[in-house]
Each structure stands twice: as structure tokens, then as C-alpha cells.
Amino acid sequence: MLAKRIIPCLDVKNGRNVRGVRFSADRDAGDPVELAVRYDREGADELVFYDITASAEARDIVMDLVREVSERVFIPLTVGGGIRTFEDVRRILQGGADKVSINTAAVRDPDIISRAAASFGSQCIVGAIDALRRPATTAERHGWQVYIDGGRTATGIDALAWAEELVRRGAGELVLNSIDSDGTRDGYDLPLNQAVAARVQVPIVASGGAGNLEHLYQVLTEGQASAALAASIFHFEVYTIPAVKAYLRDRGVMVRI
User: Fold this and answer.
1) Mind listing the pLDDT tens digit for each residue in 50-105?
2) Domains of the chain
3) Helices 241-250 and 213-221: crossing angle, nearest 10°?
4) So which residues are the catalytic ones?
């Protein structure tokens, strides 16, 4: 059995790490480089860096900041935001990232996943899905719709079908960002993670809603996620990485110590 991963997330806007509720990004959460160094020192398994406004603003990702983070940490680094072309993927990998997380660009041009996976390997390509729960109607059960542009634009695409398409095209991992749960600290969207896990055979990184230790335990067990991504509980030092791992280990979850 593979060890479960604990992954802090840096949501970067205007050079600062920010947090909010349901993608609002309205609260300063510190310097991203200093936080990255702290998480590396604490024993995080990986680190995710999102330039959260790059896609909506149609601009390139802040590569200088990406390079600075990659030069200071020694754990795998996933980078996303502002990716529009295959060359952007190449540039980010050459700039120090181990993986590239692709969301908006994949919806607008799904071939970017296929081409990037064929060129760099599926292990480098992460399919990111920002999903918002769709209410049930008399005709069909509830589901989740894919949003792009940092959660600003509805696509009408079913999130479960899109997860299957991303994997079919070569994504080696999926990040499931629950817009409903993001920043609420009320727990991960377990049904979303369970539904996707039932359809694909690649690792799933659960994102959105971590508020306490039990939430992480639930999503890694009941939610069937391979990794738990969290932000606020780490940025504001509600919990440390070692405290989370010790709790999970004591509950019988295999983690890297």
C-alpha cells in the first residue's frame, strides 16, 4: 500500500499567498517562499503552487517566484495557473517544477493533456478540476459542474465525465478542488472524491474544506483520496505537518514520517 500524502497549497496573488472562502482569496496568508521553506522543513510530502489569477487575467504565471520556491525546497513541486499552451508546460517544468497542474487550458484545448503526457510523461501531468455541486432536479440526480478561470466561469461539463476524459488523455493524477468546500473548514466533499475514485485508477488529491484532523483522516480513508491538500490550517498554524502525520499514523493511516 502506498503511503498517503499531505500537501500544503500556496494560492498566490500579486506575489503573496492568499486565502478566502469559495475562491474569494481575500485574506493575506503570508510570504509564499517563507511558507514553502517551512513546509519543506516540517516534512510535507509535496508542495502545490497556484497562481490563482493568471488564467482569469490571461497572463503568464509568475515564473520568477516559481523558480525562487523551487530553488529553496527539496520536495516535489506542482505548479499551476496561467497555462495556455504546450510551451507553457515545457517552460514550467524547465523552471523547476516536478509536475504541472492544468485546468482551464485543458477545457479549452484537451489536446494539451495528450501532447504534454506524451512528451513529458503522465507522472508530470496533473489534471485539476474545480467542481461546484449541481442541485438535483426532477429529471436527474445531483452532480458536479466543472468551472474554469479560477472558479469564475461555468462550463456545463460534468465533473465525473471530465475526470475520466483527463485520465484517458494521459493525466497521471487528478486534483479535485471543491468550490463548495473551499476555505470553509467544514470538511472535504467526500461524495465528490468517492464518485471520481470509482471511475478512475489514478491518484486523487482532495482539495477544499480541511478544518481539523478528522477531516483529513476521513478523506484519506472514506473519501478514497491518495493525498490531502490543505492551506489555511497550515498557513495560520492551526496544525503543523508533523502533528497531522502523527494523528494519521495513530489512526492506522500509512504516512511518511
Assistant:
1) 885 655 555 456 677 888 888 999 999 999 988 899 999 999 999 889 999 999 99
2) 5-250 (3.20.20.70)
3) 60
4) 11, 130
